[in-house]
Amino acid sequence: MHDPYGGLADLKAGFLRVLHGLSFHDDPTRAFRAARFAARLDLRLAPETLGLMAAARRAGSFDALGRERLGGELDRILAEPAVVQAFRLLREWRLLPVIHKRFDATRGFLERLQDARSAAARAGGVLGDEAPSQAEVLWLAVASAIPRPDRATLDRMIPGGHKARRRFREGAEKAKRAVSALAKAKRPSDAAKLLERLDPAELVYALGLAEGRGHGRWIDWWLQEGRAIEPAFGGDELLAQGFRQGPAFGRALDAARRKAWDGADWEAQIAAARAVLVKVGRDQAG
């Protein structure tokens, strides 16, 4: 075997090494790939390589790194099983400010990242084809480490189009507010009204935020049961009751679904729907 760069010796020693002194100057994304592979393969940077990275950082080589290219590397890191270790390395190498100069690299961020990864693994089997990717969920943890007013200037990092970028800007707070409000939920319908507003990635991120809290049971209920519950009847039944089809049918069926979430029978559900339609009819007549 021809091994001109001593790669076998480095592997045996557990080192990751660049091939030339200007490697990080030429392509700063190599530093983020280094974190990904070092975390995945349990390697550490060779001392010389660590010095070259620090020199490139001091020289401002990372300042010119495009948002799209940086986002692509982060997206690959966020998909890794060893994502938390990769971000520990980025923190150790002082590269998190490349993402944002005020990136919150505290222990709390790493804990949110780990909880979100665990939640993505738990929810995957429940949500099936609707399950978000691990990276989609963990982008919300990254967003939580960046001041909200500044996220709009960074959303070009985010793969996936307009919806993913809006989630990056707003989703972490949506999930956090929902988890906080769940503490006051008394009935399944209270929880459902909060959780149905979240998209799958926000929902799974909320599951991670609720880790270790008693009201996290509401998210488990929603994932496993609540989101699939529908009223025991549809619009045809309301027509049969003598009501004229119109926009109020949606509100009536929503009222019936709230009753269904709370375990009410057909009679209670139809009564709730009928009450909505009767009130709408009176309001229109008045």
From TrEMBL:
Domain of life: Bacteria
Coiled coil: none
Essential cofactor(s): Mg(2+)
SUPFAM superfamilies: Poly A polymerase C-terminal region-like
GO molecular function: metal ion binding; nucleotide binding; nucleotidyltransferase activity; RNA binding
GO biological process entries: tRNA processing
Presence of the UniProt keyword Metal-binding in the record: yes
UniProt keyword Nucleotidyltransferase, yes or no: yes
Keywords carried by this UniProt record: Magnesium, Metal-binding, Nucleotide-binding, Nucleotidyltransferase, RNA-binding, Transferase, tRNA processing
Family listed: Belongs to the tRNA nucleotidyltransferase/poly(A) polymerase family.
Protein name per UniProt: tRNA nucleotidyltransferase
